[in-house]
Amino acid sequence: MGILLAIENLSIAVGKKSTGEPLVKNVSLQLEEGKTYGIVGESGSGKSLTSLSILNLLADKLTITEGQIQFADKGNLLSLKKNQLQKIRGKEISMIFQEPMTALDPMYTIHYQLFEVLKFHKKLSKQQMYEQVINMLNAVGISRPEKVLKNYPHELSGGMRQRIMIAMALLCNPKLLIADEPTTALDVTIQAQILELMKKLKQQYQSTILLITHDLGVIAESCDDVAVMYAGQIVEIGSVEEIFDQPKHPYTQGLLKAVNSIGNEAQELYAIPGNVPTQDEFNEGCRFASRCPLVIESCHNNVPHLTRITQSHTVRCWAVEQEGVSYET
Ligand SMILES: Nc1ncnc2c1ncn2[C@@H]1O[C@H](COP(=O)(O)OP(=O)(O)OP(=O)(O)O)[C@@H](O)[C@H]1O
């Protein structure tokens, strides 16, 4: 399988001519076709900005100051014109969000909104569109699709709205589905159902998924590969097994230690000491330096290189690079 999406050295800053430290700095990652790729990190780590930049959906006051985003045979998405990108959006790359009402318009019926997607991207007869919509609603587990089509979004439950948004995103069978915290707003049982549904649909439609979440449980459950982000920088990339069984970056190790301490009565709850730095506290080197148990001089001034541990496992950490060893907690 080839690489479907490659983000290369992406930096995002506030303002048109920002000279300060960027919010997202030198992010690079590669999504293999057919796989689910997770980006995990605490709130504010830059996960959403990274994913929004793929479809040029960043807020006006934010600027991509560096980097490229190569997608399939389309070249660099960042250099495409607005109308070229519009043809890709919804057809080849779709997005689902934490809050379905971000994608659904309260003023229109589900029927209208699903048909609009097909009308924009495909040349189909009314009958063909109807069949496609009904099939997709069935595929996402909506039991009486003909009835639901007549509803407005507010007439449906949160879980139903999430299913409709997924149906809308998959209607044109996109090569890439970007899911930004798709289950965060849902209660635990619905969360599990939606994750299960996404797994099933991924196999059925052979989509590649970029899954953004702060929840390591969701990553373990759904992903093949993972990038760990901290304060706008990627600190570690690996397969799910590598990240969970052999984490190398002190931040990844801290995150896992914190999660593993939950529900373990014999152990005190663990939290990584200190706080995530705000933008005006970013240093030029590794942004985890102020909280890192392994910090050395270089960490404050220079961004660490990517050290390759295996073909799929890389880590950005001066201590790991210099020592060439792993640090287990
Ligand atoms: N429009 C904006 N203007 C200025 N700063 C912004 C803007 N949008 C996001 N940021 C800042 O960029 C940083 C990264 O935000 P981002 O939304 O990507 O984080 P995240 O990892 O997705 O977190 P969350 O899970 O809370 O959404 C945060 O510090 C945030 O405050």
Automatic annotation (TrEMBL):
UniProt subcellular location: Cell membrane
Matching InterPro entries: AAA+_ATPase (IPR003593), ABC_Ni/Peptide_Import (IPR050388), ABC_transporter-like_ATP-bd (IPR003439), ABC_transporter-like_CS (IPR017871), Oligopep_ABC_C (IPR013563), P-loop_NTPase (IPR027417)
NCBIfam families named in the record: oligo_HPY
PANTHER family registered for this protein in UniProt: DIPEPTIDE TRANSPORT ATP-BINDING PROTEIN DPPD, OLIGOPEPTIDE TRANSPORT ATP-BINDING PROTEIN APPD
UniProt keyword Coiled coil, yes or no: no
UniProt main location, coarse: membrane
Family that this chain belongs to: Belongs to the ABC transporter superfamily.
Sorted UniProt keywords: ATP-binding, Cell membrane, Membrane, Nucleotide-binding, Transport
Protein name: ABC transporter ATP-binding protein
Sequence intervals crossing the membrane: none
Residue intervals of the ABC transporter domain: 5-256
CDD domains with a match to the protein in the record: ABC_NikE_OppD_transporters
Lipid bilayer topology: Peripheral membrane protein
A Pfam family recorded for this sequence: ABC_tran
Superkingdom to which the source organism belongs: Bacteria
GO molecular function: ATP binding
